[in-house]
Design goal:
Elements (H helix, E strand, L loop, with lengths): L1 H16 L8 E6 L3 E2 L5 E9 L7 E2 L6 E3 L5 E3 L4 E2 L4 E6 L4 E6 L3 E11 L2 E4 L11 E17 L12 E5 L12 E7 L2 E2 L4 E6 L12 E4 L5 E4 L5 E12 L6 E13 L4
Parallel strand pairs: 2-12, 12-20
Antiparallel strand pairs: 1-3, 3-4, 3-8, 5-6, 5-9, 7-8, 9-12, 10-11, 10-12, 13-14, 14-15, 14-18, 16-17, 16-19, 19-20
Length: about 260
Amino acid sequence: MLLTRLKTLGLWLTPLLLGSAAQAHSPYLKPNTFNAEQQRKHVTVEASFAEGELRPDVAMKSDSFHVIGPDGRRQPLVPAAVLKDASYLEVPLDASGTYLVSSGVRKGRLAKALLRRGQLHFTEQQEDPLPGDTPVEVQSLTRADVYVSRGRPSAVDFDTDGLEIYPVTRPYDLYAGETVTVRVRENRKPLAGETLTLIADGQSYASQKQAEQHFSTNAAGEVSFKPQAAGVYLLQVRVRRPSPDKPTLWLSNTATLTIEVQAQP
């Protein structure tokens, strides 16, 4: 029953994931601590999809969950539990330093769309194309990342590939009121002119709500922003382009990075 429900929810989520950031469920990884003390040898990470607030709504499933340790070695992860709303990973922290926990690239199902004046238009029902429209299929690809540290942090420039949000400002050294810089890159090459969305968690309880913010990456693929409040934030970028091998197939890549902004000491 659980597997059937997850498959049904996955099909329902696909058009949402292909939509705009404000309307879509976002994939995220959320650890129970971002900076573990030296004596702590694991963290528990929640993997789910949410809309706005990072409250689990649909469990994330992936064959590519993994962690990259301070020594650069990659270790596959198998969820300790898969519930209806979230999966939970117990991530080993075998040594001091900073780790990258990732869902890997998750492939969704194909969705139908119309390419109209260079823009994709998704429809839940059959729609007659207008003159000049081109029917295409869109493949959804999603990835969620988070960095965690045990004891003394270490460098974070791991050997990765695919679309990702890389923290230029050290992820364990983010403070309210200070500038944070991240780089959108694909196969380690910067992407200019892409839209990065910043979503603040915990807004249900905030006296002053923080609306979603949108930034455009510069020539170096970078965005800088200054969070005014401590808390957990989700960064998201979506890159769409035609497949290099098939003109009627478009690829919709979504990458997220969860960060913790600390209060000023």
